Amino acid sequence: MTAVFMGSMDRLGVEASLVDRRFSADLGQVGHASFGKLVRAIGLFSRLRQAAKVKRPDYGVVFVTNRPGSFLVDCAVVAILRMYRVPIIHYVHTTGFSKLASRGHAWKQLVRAVLSSADTVVTLGPSLADDIAQWVKPAQMCFIQNIPHMAPSSISPANQGGPIIFLSNLIREKGADTFVQAASILAAKVDHQFVIAGGEPDDEFSKELRALVDALSLGSRVRFLGHLDSNSKWQLLRDCAMLVFPSRYPFEAQPLTLVEARHVGVPTVATDVGGIRDLVDESGWLTLDPIGTSESIAQAVLAKLSESPPRYRTGDNGRQWTSVYDQAWLSVLTNEPGDGSKCRSDHQVAGRTTCTERVKDVDEDQRGGKL
What we know:
It is a single chain. The chain has 371 residues and is an alpha/beta fold. The protein folds into two domains: 2-148 and 318-357, Rossmann fold (3-Layer(aba) Sandwich); 164-307, 3-Layer(aba) Sandwich (Rossmann fold), CATH 3.40.50.2000. It is built from twelve helices and twelve strands. Strand 7 (194-197), helix 8 and strand 8 (222-226) form a beta-alpha-beta unit.
């Protein structure tokens, strides 16, 4: 999301300074405190203070997160920006703030203080907005859906006989085990192969998945591709018959895998968790399964295979989304309501500096490595 946002600022002619942070290099480090993280946090505060003091930005766009440790860093980031009177735009790309506030009175006050500190709050969609509605006024909120980064400009014809795929890092909450169990139901009913692609940061879970494949006698039908580089990932999306995304992570926003599948127009079945429902549109590319069991996923896949075209027309292969994304951010920065949203700011863009701070540890769809 950071790369997509910075690309948009470049296209809009906005001078953007990125004050970056990545505390966790892999899944094993996420959610665990360490001395190294403390040192990096102090360095982040120093760099942000210098950027705010020297560059005097017109905006501070803060990618807020719901992890307790990272959220405490958010509190300090907001304090620094307010100290230098930098107007704040919060970019909310996850749910879970209500749950964070439920940890106790002090946490509720901190969540309120951070979210109410912004002139404008940009969320990916209505589901994320519902999570923070008690602290953010409707007039301050805007919706800007995520778009893919470095997407191909043209899409090759679909392979109707291609595999049914799971594309995400192999971590329990993403539901690769549910995919395998659904594949065991589907194997007797369809001729498709099943492909599991993505990094394997959790060795124990990877072993369990392979053991499950063997136990269900799916060795000849299921392939593990492991980590894919960008070109291989897009090729897989072009060649597949369908994507299945059975995540059970309650704070899903708009997973990169689904955003990329929409770009290609891949028929997709996903569980109805978090903000995934905000990606549903009139093209019909995405079917939501509200149950999330292997049986319900298999039924949804069969239904979609019987009714779906090989590819859906989803926004002229995504080219229009880049323009919509750019114009939405321009509306935020120039105080012009866009797409029904009212965004408030007293500053004009005109090539001015935007000070950006990234506070997400590791993208939920890329934890443990790239796809």
